Amino acid sequence: MMMTSGTEIQRYRDTEVPARAIACYRASTIVFFSVLLFIGCSPLEKEGPVVRRVDTLFTPPDTSTIPHDATGDMIRYGRELLVNFPYYLGPKGTVGKFGGNGLGCQNCHLDAGARPYGLSYFSAHARYPQYRAREGRVLTLADRVNNCVERPLNGTAMPVDSKEMTAIVLYMKWLGKDVPVGGHVPGDKLKEIQLLDRPADPNKGMVVYQQHCVRCHGDDGQGVLKPDGIAYTYPPLWGPLSYQPGSSMHRLIKSAQFIKYNMPFDLVRWDTPLLTDEEAMDVAAYVNDDKMHTRPTADLSMEYPFQKEKPLDYYHAPYADPFSAEQHKYGPFKPIFEWRKKNGHPTGY
Ligand code: HEC
Ligand code: HEC
Question: What architecture does CATH give domain 202-342?
């Protein structure tokens, strides 16, 4: 458990020698002082201080600071639901039956949504209600939670005024209490990866899977249930008990971003990736390949009522751009990105 206060900022990767200072130093040995001034180097920079490039990550408040009152009890309950969703609200849930498979929120939203770049909930409360292209309307945070109950969990929406939904939203509010309203903080989104110049290759991905994933998620991608048969030790990545098409995790870029900075689970965090960008894209293509693997079905016909708002890696036609469904699924994405930019269409993924 982290012992930091809510407003504290975690610092990492803090040393980088400034390339410009070195360049200027070298230049000074061969070029006149006046020329140095002209190109913007100060002679002082010869021995100038090492500039520290600091990436600041949002640090969520420590759970020990949750107040000991009625509100605090609800925050703790919300967190407990997000950590152990299948026990309370899964198909065998003791409080209600909303999840349709054994997946829990924490299988994707790591550490109760408190892990940077691990699908954290840092800014979720601060950014909702918001317009959602998939529905073509404004959703509340409770609606967005229900999206994940319905898609990755292949279940049915929870009542938005239930005690459980209130507790979940309250926990997210507490977790992001230091996030400016409407804003993002470092670590809330998935970490960016380089888009490839070729389509992602599921066959190459299969090799990556055998090497780095199979020992936990299994040969058949079905994962491993806990002995109680209710929740997973290793969640399934495809098959009838996995996430639906239409889940964001079924989109190539999102999935690859998650995988690269979080998997293999026992070795990798955002700051210790193991796969290259290519390997992450290829293995995401393998996991999400609809010819090699099955998944529950879903009716996607009502999604993205405005075609040009479909994310780059959304793989169901029709599109407002001239690229094929195949290219939207596997890439290369750069030509789609460029075309959309040129034509004033949204370029998100
Ligand atoms: C199979 C993986 C998976 C599971 C399981 C899952 N989610 Fe998600 N969730 C995602 C992905 C992927 C996104 C999209 C993140 C993005 O757009 O960058 C998301 C987005 C969200 C968001 C919006 C976050 C934001 O900041 O915009 C919320 C809230 C959320 N999920 C809640 C839940 C809850 C609650 C559960 C359990 C009932 C759950 N999710 C289960 C994958 C999952
Ligand atoms: C050491 C075991 C282990 C290895 C190896 C591993 N994972 Fe995972 N993976 C997990 C666990 C555990 C979770 C769920 C995290 C949690 O519940 O806290 C998970 C979650 C996931 C999820 C999100 C949940 C879901 O069901 O979709 C994806 C996607 C995923 N892993 C893909 C991969 C890929 C791809 C690889 C190989 C590059 C890999 N994992 C390697 C243990 C592992």
Answer: Orthogonal Bundle (1.10)
Alpha-carbon distance values, 170 to 27, 73, 78, 126, 160 (Å): 57, 10, 7, 12, 13
pTM of the predicted protein model: 0.88
pLDDT for residue 55? 62
For range 151-162, the mean pLDDT: 98
Residue 82 to residue 104: CA distance in whole angstroms? 7
Atom 16 in ligand 2: residue holding the nearest Cα: 107
Tens of pLDDT, residues 72-124: 999 999 999 999 999 999 999 999 999 999 999 999 999 999 999 999 999 99
How far, in Å, from the CA of 212 to the mean position of ligand 2? 10
Minimal-distance CA residue to ligand 1 atom 36: 105
Task: Please give the distance, rounded to the nearest whole angstrom, from the Cα atom of residue 109 to the centre of ligand 1.
Answer: 7
* Cβ of residue 215 lying under 6 Å from some atom of ligand 2: yes
Give the right CATH number for 63-175 from 1.10.760.10, 3.40.50.2000, 3.50.50.60, 1.20.140.10. Answer: 1.10.760.10
Asked if 36 and 132 touch (Cβ cutoff 8 Å), the reply is no
